[in-house]
Every structure is written in C-alpha cells, then in structure tokens.
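2.7 Reproducibility. Because tokenized structures are sensitive to small changes in the input, we list the exact sequence used for F-box domain-containing protein, including any N-terminal residues retained from the expression construct. No trimming or masking was applied before prediction.
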Amino acid sequence: MADPCPSSCWADLPSDLLGRILQLLELPEALSVASVCMSWSTAASAAGVPRSHTPWLMSWSDDLLVNDSKGRACCTDFRSLLDTYKVYDVTLSRGCSLAWCGSSHGWLGAADELSNLLLCNPFTFATIPLPPITDLGCVEAVRDCEGSIVGYLPGKKQNRVGVKWIGRWFYHKVVLSCDPSQNGNYTAMLIHYYANQISFAVAGEGCWRLASTIPQQNKDRYADCVFHRGRFYALTLCGTLELCFSPVVMGNS
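Resulting structure tokens (single pass, no recycling of outputs):
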C-alpha cells in the first residue's frame, strides 16, 4: 500500500511560501533559514534578507521591553547598511539590555541589571560575562543584610549610586581583540569611569587589570580605542594616540 503522506524534501518548498515564512521571522531566524541550502538562500535573498556579514545599525529604547516564554525581553531594531529603510526585529534578554557600550567582531558590549559587563551575540543569543564592576578597583559594592548588592560607591565619593544607574554612565566603550566564538582566546579593552581610565580583561583570567589612567585634574579624556595588528590603541580628546598594550605580551607576562 502506498504511503498516503510520502516524505518530501524541505528544499522543494515553494519560494513564495518561504518568502511568507521569512516575513514572520526575526532577523536571527531569517539568517538561519538563508544558510540551510541554495534554494532557501535564494528565497531569502529574494525576500530581502541580507547576508550575515552585512554591517548593521541598531536602535533600542526602554519602551520596547516585552516578556515571552523564552525569557527574552528587549525588542531591538536592526537595519542593514545596504537597505536602511527595511527594519528587522531582534529580541534579546532583559538581563543584557540595561545599557550598550560598544560593538566588536559581531558582539555587543552590554551592562546587565547589576551593571556588570557582558558580551552578547544578537544573532545566536550567546552571552559571555566579563569580570564584575567591583573588580575595576574604583567601585565598591554596597550590600544589604543578606549580602545582596543594593548599590555602589564609585571612586572616592561616599554617595551611593543605584545598582542599575551606574551602568548607564560608567562604561564608555569596550573593544575586543577578536571574535570570542572562534577559539575563546580574546582580550576585552574598556574605557570607563569618567573616560579617564582604561582596563583590560583576558579571557579565562576572571579579572580586570588597569592599563592606563589620565589624572582627574587633567582636562583630557579618552575618546576612543581600537585593536590593530595585535595591539590596542587609545585616542584622547586632545588628539594624543597611546599604545596601550599588546594582549599577547601582557597575557604571557
């Protein structure tokens, strides 16, 4: 007796049906569909799904918080630089949506609800926690009687800052030496405090190390940092370019 429901090949799905499905998917899922096979890739391209290595513009607002069964709670808008008029949705975890402080090698630098830094991949939803804010040395945690962190004391100031509030201004930019998903051997460089300190964290060490400081009385501040040919560089507002360190050398010292 013939099988009334013979098996069919997913690659043979009509392109118009795939196109309608793609319109209902968020960006990470649409990119996954495009990588299944040649026919699905062609359908995704016809539906306007860009390639995964396309540069993206991202926008985010406190008003876009939602709740779902997957525990993801922040809806962000992504626009491809090849077509800035088309908007794609990406829903991220509420825990990594408090504040953003840079993007590097496809990963976002974010502050969680305790204002600790983590790396977030918006397409795979993978997260990598970086050492806590209290490890930077210029921030002290304030705890309640149960040991939970309820605030922070930044620098020499004795005024307590809210757990969530400090993450919105304390971090200025985080840059990575490479993609953490390649081999896990990366270094994160961070401009922080009042943009007058630079620290770095090597994967697997679990701590921040201070690399450079501009005195508070100095009017200059760090404006940007980059990783180029195996070394980190920092640029100040007054135009000074500093060679901060080489993660290979510092990691083996």
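Confidence is low (pLDDT under 50) at residues 249-253.
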